[in-house]
Write a structure and sequence with these properties.
Layout (H helix, E strand, L loop, with lengths): L13 E6 L8 H10 L3 E6 L1 H4 L4 H8 L3 E2 L10 H7 L3 E7 L1 H9 L5 H5 L7 E5 L3 H5 L1 H12 L3 E2 L3 E4 L5 E5 L3 H12 L9 E6 L4 E4 L2 E3 L6 H12 L3 E6 L11 E4 L3 H12 L4 E4 L6 E3 L18 E3 L3 H7 L5 E8 L3 H11 L4 E6 L11 E2 L1 E5 L4 E3 L3 E2 H16 L2
Parallel strand pairs: 1-2, 1-4, 2-3, 4-5, 5-6, 9-12, 9-14, 12-13, 14-17, 17-18
Antiparallel strand pairs: 7-8, 10-11, 15-16, 18-20, 19-22, 20-21
This protein binds cytidine-5'-triphosphate.
Length: about 400
């Protein structure tokens, strides 16, 4: 399971998990387990209706912590205050129409709804319900009231619902809930108000309807950067070639399969962004012509004629103005020399060089070994790290040297 957060991010974080009475409550046991395994201290507060769906023992077993339910049976009459004050994040999943309505209108008739009044700025709500309930104007108005007050919402996903109907209202998958929690908890947030364009994955250059030229890039490094940029507060758009990984929570995706399509997409969005991170593995060549019918096997040798693709990053570098541009380069040798050469040749602000062709680093590996060089003369060598940890270091370098 790929989840885009740095490996030790949840270590020591205090998360209050509020569980209300939707069928999706069963899914939230896995969320509690994941966060606990990653080092978070997860305390659960359940409503009485949630208890009809999943037992408190499930949460006690996976978190190792006590589960709170009733305001007056917890041994402390001020449980609502101490619980709200002593946690970094209050994540309500699933959030029923009832708890959303109660929070929007200040109704505090049980422990969970009462503690929501204490620290509303810590609340992250993950609504889940039937599609008609979700679309009901009264629910939408309540959500709007909360959003306007600064409460963060994880939008429900679409698909088959517990009631058998199809539509919006599903609780997002555990990975997405974890990423939403990571993005909500992350400090600093120096990218707040900034628009970040990230490219990821491998382009495909079609030879005929059944064959293409490509490379093994999974898109993991670019997706990790997109999630981390969101966590630093940025608005993120991801332009992707072929991906073999999931797009992270909270990121808008545009697909651009070939180098020419990616060039067009990058140029179209470049005016929008403040920072471009060009992480995609773009093919340097494409077939001189596309054969609309499948090229048949023959007895003699077959020569494929290739023409160069435009160097998107170089073209952007020529007209980037004051925008910040970060390039990547994949090398099998002379990594640092190549990084400095490409930084200057492409006129970019930062170049991140990675070693490819080895088991633990490069295209398909979950880890990466990178060097960062920048136009201010800085040169940083990072150890071998999981790709999301590398992404965190890259964004930190970007912020401290170019955006502070
Ligand atoms: N890049 C690009 N357009 C291309 C090829 C690459 O914009 N047609 C971008 C990549 O996204 C990356 C950077 O250029 O950010 C460096 O890519 P790399 O393949 O390492 O460099 P090249 O200039 O293609 O040099 P070479 O392949 O000869 O090493």
């Amino acid at each position: 399971m790929v989840v885009y957060h740095p490996s030790s991010f949840f270590q020591g974080k205090k998360i209050l998990l509020g569980v209300t009475g939707g069928i999706a409550a069963v899914k939230v046991v896995s969320l509690a387990r994941y966060l606990t395994e990653k080092g978070a201290r997860v305390t659960t507060c359940m409503t009485r209706h949630a208890l009809r769906i999943v037992g408190r023992t499930s949460f006690e077993a996976v978190t190792g912590e006590r589960v709170y339910i009733d305001s007056f049976a917890e041994g402390a009459s001020l449980a609502h205050i101490t619980l709200a004050r002593s946690h970094d994040l209050i994540l309500i999943a699933p959030a029923t129409a009832n708890i959303i309505g109660k929070m929007a209108h200040g109704i505090a008739d049980d422990l969970l709804s009462t503690l929501l009044l204490v620290e509303p700025q810590k609340v992250l709500l993950a609504p889940a319900m039937n599609v008609s309930m979700w679309r009901n104007p009264v629910v939408q108005e309540n959500v709007k009231i909360l959003v306007e007050r600064g409460v963060r919402i994880i939008p429900p996903s679409s698909g088959k619902l517990a009631c058998g109907e199809e539509g919006e209202g599903r609780l997002p998958e555990v990975e997405e809930l974890v990423e939403a929690a990571f993005q909500a908890l992350h400090t600093p947030r120096d990218l707040a108000g900034k628009k970040i364009l990230v490219t990821a994955g491998a382009t495909r250059e079609w030879v005929d309807p059944s064959r293409f030229i490509s490379n093994p890039s999974s898109g993991l490094m670019g997706c990790a950067l997109a999630s981390v940029c969101r966590a630093w507060g940025g608005e993120v758009k991801l332009i992707t070639g072929n991906l073999s990984v999931r797009v992270p929570f909270g990121v808008v995706q545009e697909v651009a399969e070939t180098a020419l399509a990616m060039r067009e997409a990058v140029f179209r969005s470049f005016g929008w962004c403040d920072v471009l991170i060009m992480c995609a593995a773009v093919s340097d060549f494409r077939p001189a012509s596309f054969s609309p019918s499948k090229i048949k096997r023959g007895e003699s040798a077959f020569t494929l004629s290739l023409v160069p693709n435009p160097d998107i990053l170089k073209e952007i570098g020529e007209k980037k103005g004051t925008k910040i541009v970060v390039g990547f380069c994949a090398e099998t040798e002379n990594v640092l020399e190549e990084a400095w050469r490409k930084l200057r040749a492409k006129n970019v602000d930062m170049m991140v060089a990675n070693l490819v062709g080895q088991e633990e680093t490069g295209f398909t590996a979950p880890t990466n070994k990178v060097w960062i060089v920048d136009r201010k003369g800085n040169e940083v060598v990072l150890p071998l790290l999981p790709k999301v940890d590398v992404a965190e270091r890259i964004v930190s370098h970007l912020v401290s040297h170019f955006l502070s």
